């Protein structure tokens, strides 16, 4: 049976686009991924950034996000817009912190910030 993200995601997740969208919490990972993709796809990203985000967050991406959360404790990406980097995060709601905060990984190694 193919996962839709509701059985393995472990509950609510929080998404954020640093300096563009305030953190928002969703009860289901597929809903969070879809909302984040909808918010990012309308930004004036270059072709390469758009295609990279489509891969990570577009159709069929829930499994990749699940794997990242299981492995690293969150999915953390960045993009350049108007000359500055913006952090994009999806993290379990109980572990979400402010953008740029270093999160502890499930394997005990420090997360990238």
Strand ordering within the main sheet: 2-1-4-3
Helix/strand/pairing category: alpha+beta
Number of E-state strands:
4
| Through-space gap between termini | 35 Å
Instruction: Give the count of helical stretches.
Output: 3
Order of helices and strands: EEHHHEE
Strand content: 15-25%
**Poorly predicted regions:** 1-9, 99-113
> What's the alpha carbon Rg, rounded to whole Å?
13 Å
* Percent range of helical residues: 25-40%
Largest sheet geometry:
4 strands, antiparallel
Describe this structure in words.
This protein has 113 residues and is α+β, with helices and mostly antiparallel strands. It is 31% helix and 24% strand. It contains three helices and four strands; from the N terminus they run ββαααββ. It has helices at residues 29-41, 47-57, 62-72; strands at 13-17, 21-26, 75-81, 84-92. It has a four-stranded antiparallel sheet with strand order 2-1-4-3. Strand 1 (13-17) and strand 2 (21-26) form a beta hairpin. The longest helix is centred in the N-terminal third of the chain and has 13 residues, at 29-41. It is globular. It starts with 12 loop residues before the first strand and ends in a 21-residue tail after the last strand. Mean pLDDT is 79; it is low at 1-9 and 99-113.
Task: Draw up the topology in text.
Blueprint: E1 13-17, E2 21-26, H1 29-41, H2 47-57, H3 62-72, E3 75-81, E4 84-92
Antiparallel strand pairs: 1-2, 1-4, 3-4
Helix pairs in contact: 1-2
Question: Can you give keywords for this protein?
Answer:
globular, alpha+beta, four-stranded antiparallel β-sheet, disordered N terminus, 4 strands, disordered C terminus, 113 residues
């Amino acid at each position: 049976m193919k996962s839709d993200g509701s059985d393995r995601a472990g509950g609510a997740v929080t998404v954020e686009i640093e300096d563009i969208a305030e953190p928002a919490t969703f009860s289901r990972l597929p809903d969070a991924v879809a909302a984040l993709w909808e918010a990012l796809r309308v930004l004036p990203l270059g072709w390469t950034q758009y295609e990279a985000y489509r891969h990570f967050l577009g159709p069929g991406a829930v499994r990749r996000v699940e794997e990242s959360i299981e492995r690293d404790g969150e999915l953390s990406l960045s993009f350049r817009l108007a000359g500055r980097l913006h952090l994009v995060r999806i993290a379990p709601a109980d572990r979400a912190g402010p953008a740029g905060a270093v999160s502890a990984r499930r394997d005990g190694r420090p997360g990238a910030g």
